[in-house]
């Protein structure tokens, strides 16, 4: 990585399941990493990499050229960016990046609000979960002004196998929601076919191996036993249902009819625990 790329200082908030590996990758690539956390113990996730921790969000914001947020909901982003004073303390011309999953309409709204502070906004949700984050193999879907997205691309490439520019503000979020919906639809297909296989007496683990090896293979199948286990399925199910609420709202806001897609994807999320138990992956 050349000096031009690493000359940007990167702020980060949200050292969770995906955020911590993302922040580590950024530091390991040679970028100067600045972090702020509500809980000091969260910094343990950065053990072994270089970073500077700040007592206040405003100090971290003022020291950063790009600030990445990896938080759970749009309301968290709103609280940090506006109520918490992040935007008010960021440098003119700097970039606020949202790596969380949320509504495309919120991404567009945040872009408009941030422009009053002379701050650029990029929505760059990621897909792949914790294992892909640790392996620096995330898929990052980017929405926002193309020149700003291109400026941030080298940072995104430190933790991504693919960085896909999708279009204007909110496009990254829409791509993520579509990706999630199709994953859950695939889960429903798997549930239906495995139930049929069980009904006719096939050995389910062997059938899963066949489907993974054949032309029916998919990420949803690959995730069984790795990202999706009987222990994790219930938690993942809740997150997927939240994602489908976002998808349904996003589709409604753009005036598109996708009730059949939503219904089928929700069924796939709802059946996730049953699939995990059927395969009996421990």
From TrEMBL:
GO MF entries: NAD binding; NADP binding; oxidoreductase activity
Active-site residues annotated for this sequence: 176
SUPFAM superfamilies: 6-phosphogluconate dehydrogenase C-terminal domain-like, NAD(P)-binding Rossmann-fold domains
InterPro entries (alphabetical): 6-PGluconate_DH-like_C_sf, 6PGD_dom2, 6PGDH_NADP-bd, HIBADH-like_NADP-bd, HIBADH-related, NAD(P)-bd_dom_sf
UniProt keyword annotations, A-Z: NAD, Oxidoreductase
Domain 3-hydroxyisobutyrate dehydrogenase-like NAD-binding: 170-256
Highest taxon above the source species: Bacteria
Domain 6-phosphogluconate dehydrogenase NADP-binding: 9-167
Family: Belongs to the HIBADH-related family.
Protein name as it appears in the record: 6-phosphogluconate dehydrogenase
